[in-house]
Amino acid sequence: MDKRILGFIITLVAWAVGVIYLLPFIWMIGTSFKPIGEWGLPTLLPENPTGRNYLEILVTGGVYGVRGHFPPILRYLFNSVMVSVTVAILTSLLGAFTAYGILRYRAGGTFFANWILSLRMIPPVVILYPLVVLTKSIGLYDTVGGLVFVYPVITLPIVTWFMIGAFKSVPRETEEAAMLDGCTPFQVFTRIALPQASIGLATSAIFAFLFSWSEFLIPLLLAPSESAMPLTAFAGYFSNQYGILWGPLSAAAVIISLPVIMTAIMIQKYLIRGLTLGFIR
Amino acid sequence: MGSRSSGLLFIAPAAVYLVALVIYPTVYLYYMVFHSLNPLFDVAPKFVGFQNIYTLVQDQDASYAILAMLLLTGITVPVQLALGSLLALLFTSPHLRGRLVLRSITLIPLSIPAVIVGLNWKMIFFTYGPLNTFLGSIGLEPQPWLSAPFGHPFNTFFVLAVLDIWQWTPFVALAVAAGIESIPPDIQEAAALDGATRLQMIRHIVFPLSKTIIIIVLLFRLIDSLKIFDIIYMLTFGGPGNLTTTLPFYIYKIGFTLTAAKADIGYASLLAVILLLIATFLVLLVLTRVLNVKRVVWE
Fold first, then answer.
1. Among B122, B265, B293, beta carbon nearest to A129
2. Helix (H, G, I), strand (E, B) or coil at B297
3. CA separation for the pair B12, B14 (Å, rounded)
4. How large a percentage of chain A has pLDDT more than 70?
5. Between chain A and chain B, how many beta carbons pairs sit less than 8 Å apart?
6. Rounded to an integer, what distance in angstroms lies between the CA atom of residue B17 and that of residue B23?
7. Which of B93, B252, B293 is closest, CB to CB, to A114?
8. By the CB < 8 Å criterion, does A142 face chain B?
9. How confident is the model at residue B203 (pLDDT cuts 50, 70, 90)?
10. Residue B58 to residues B244, B254, B273, Cα–Cα distance (Å)
11. Distance from A65 to chain B by nearest Cα, in Å?
């Protein structure tokens, strides 16, 4: 077959698939700018675009002047950012620490490495009730701190395995030389190994951020009030309680999605590596 | 290099943390299996022996939930692997134009929180939503996408399966594409010099070398497909009836919604143990045969 025709067909099919992935997303962005009468229309873009949905859900609350119908989401957004950023910093450091111990010292042996890997498998719903009891008993139930305390169960295994991969590409020789020069193991870690794996560390922090940002079931049950509930849990809870306020809901969805899509595109080189815990590089 | 004790110091914080937040809950879970705690009426769990196990044996909803979960996994994961591998071949084709943009687009369903994916499709599939309005305008019958019972041609269980396939096929595609691209170019050049066609190269070089990757992808898809919760919560809340109530969602209903018929945290704990056993069994099946952790980490 002619190379040009083949190339044309391949490009056409691949882009048809691309459109299937793009359309729902464009529709969501379009709806977030639609005034109330256009929400259900099958048009991709608004005829009379308005920023009212964003203004009302972010600042004033209410839908088209009806106060109390949709609370302003700034508070929930703030909770999301607080939890995700804190978890990202904490778990990337803790994960780097653990990965280094596993890789360089074989600490805990195959069993420990295996066990951490297996935690990736536990469905959160399984340990949810015990976690509710645990956070209640130490006074962290329904607080931002409680979520920060619990999320590493999800993010730590991911970060640890990602960092094992990152440290593997750091040459051992410089570390051994530093040891001979009298550095303590901890100094070797902070001054030699960690700086050389800094890209890996940053990427794993971003992964921890993305996973915390998307978490839904845990905050739904562990942080039911406004003072701690993150935006994802709010969007899910709200849409089930009050139904089809599509304009504001789409605006909230765009606010939740845009930062993570940007981040994912930025780190796309590492995305698959991260999602498979470093098994596929 | 270094001493044993400093290695233990490196892993100690994570080990202590994970013991507190994983081992303790697991032990508590097994304790609750033999207790009963109605979230509405009871203050403290009371010992009931094997009563939860009797309930489970007689509970048809539970058997259905297990079956629904396995069926959903059994449908979606193989389709994702097949479609994803095909898509990976397209993505790595030298003839494709706009590869980078296209790949960025397929990152969208992977990076958006599952709740938002669910919310988005919930609006699109709504009975008076854009999809049905569109179908009506071109003279086709609107469908009750999210409330079609079993036996309906567009039954909601399959809508759910199609959505999961939509969401996760790009993951398979990008992973397999990464594998194909890591094949050293000189192997492909040598084959091309020997006059191999692209189809022959795919069959004899790309496919055998991507085998490990496909199995790793299978492992991760398996794990995550047994966890599917957010999308069900958003789209159907387990309905219509209990058509889309898979095991994780059934556990949520029994343990955390007060209106469920058998609402009981002890019983939910037993179901959670069952889920854990099924997941462990399936994952071990793949893991022990294929992934050698010792080799991956230290060699």
1. B265
2. helix
3. 6
4. 97
5. 302
6. 10
7. B293
8. no
9. confident
10. 20, 15, 17
11. 23
In order of their start, the domains of chain A are 3-50 (no CATH), 76-243+256-275 (1.10.3720.10)
Q: Which residues of B touch A160 (CB under 8 A)?
A: 14
Q: To the nearest 5 percent, what fractions of chain B are helix, strand and coil?
A: 70, 0, 25
- Give the pLDDT confidence of A127-152 residue by residue, as tens digits: 999 999 999 999 999 999 999 999 99
């508590």: which residue's tokens? Answer: B28
pLDDT of residue A273: 84
At residue A275, the pLDDT reads 85
What is the CATH class of B60-262+269-298?
mainly alpha
Q: Which of chain A's residues have a Cβ under 8 Å away from the Cβ of B265? A: 129
At residue A208's C-alpha, the angle toward residues A206 and A213, to 5°, is 95
Name chain A contacts of B159, Cβ cutoff 8 Å: none
Report the amino acid identity of residue B29.
Answer: L
Tell me the C-alpha distance between A12 and B228, whole Å: 32
CA A134 to CA A131: how far, in whole Å? 5
pLDDT in tens, B70-110: 999 999 999 999 999 999 989 988 888 888 899 899 999 99
Contacts of residue B61, defined as CB under 8 A and 6 or more positions apart, other chains included, come to: B242, B245, B250, B262
Q: Does the distance separating the beta carbons of B256 and A221 come in below 8 Å?
A: yes
Q: Name the pTM for this structure.
A: 0.92
Name the residue ranges covered by the structural domains of chain B. Answer: 60-262+269-298
Of A127, A186, A275, the CB nearest to B29: A127
A253, B120 Cβ separation under 8 angstroms: yes
